[in-house]
Amino acid sequence: MKPIVIVLVVAALVVAAMAIVYLPRVLAPESAPVNTNQELIGGQKDVHGCLIAAGYSWCEPKQKCLRIWEEKCYEAEEAVLTEIFSSGHNQPVDQTYVTVVRVQDNFASGSIYFGEPGGEGGGFLARLAGKNWIVDFEGNGSVDCAKIKNLGYPDEVLEGYCD
């Protein structure tokens, strides 16, 4: 191949590479307006800044966002309610699993099961009266929402039970 042809081929490759790199900048300059107010999909956060799509929710006692399956939020409440449910159902404490999902103004909601993970269980609604927890509902049936609301349960705690 002649030296002039080699020079022309190399020059054409350099021009093509420059066009690939610089042409988009010429056609869409950085000064063009960009919509930075558009929220990213999956980027929704709750009022506390917890990333909802990633499974985070606000834990009031710990004052932080967490995933309840990774870190317990209401450890003290869960320990007491575990004792209540285990004795009430004549089940061993180590086979009684309570997860408190919401607590507000001394009212709690969550789930409970017995035995191996995925065992028999359901939901519960409980309230703190003085120093004692009272279970007002447990199971998988329908909730008497009028009765529960008359006990003072906040709407946030009743989410999923009395919507």
Summarize the helices and strands and which ones pair or pack.
Elements (H helix, E strand, L loop, with lengths): L2 H25 L29 E3 L4 E3 L8 H14 L7 E9 L2 E8 L6 E9 L2 E8 L5 H6 L13
Antiparallel strand pairs: 1-2, 3-4, 4-5, 5-6
List keywords for this structure.
four-stranded antiparallel β-sheet; Nuclear Transport Factor 2, Chain: A; alpha+beta; 163 residues; two-stranded antiparallel ribbon; 3 domains; 6 strands
Can you give a write-up of this model?
With 163 residues, this protein is of the alpha+beta class. The chain folds into 3 domains: 1-30; 40-73, no CATH class; 74-163, Nuclear Transport Factor 2, Chain: A (Roll). It is 28% helix and 25% strand. The chain has 3 helices and 6 strands. A 4-stranded antiparallel beta sheet has the order 3-4-5-6, with helices on one face. The protein has a two-stranded antiparallel ribbon with strand order 1-2. A hairpin with a 6-residue loop joins β4 and β5. The longest helix is centred in the first third of the chain and has 25 residues, at 3-27.
Compose a concise summary of this entry:
Helix content is 28%, strand content 25%.
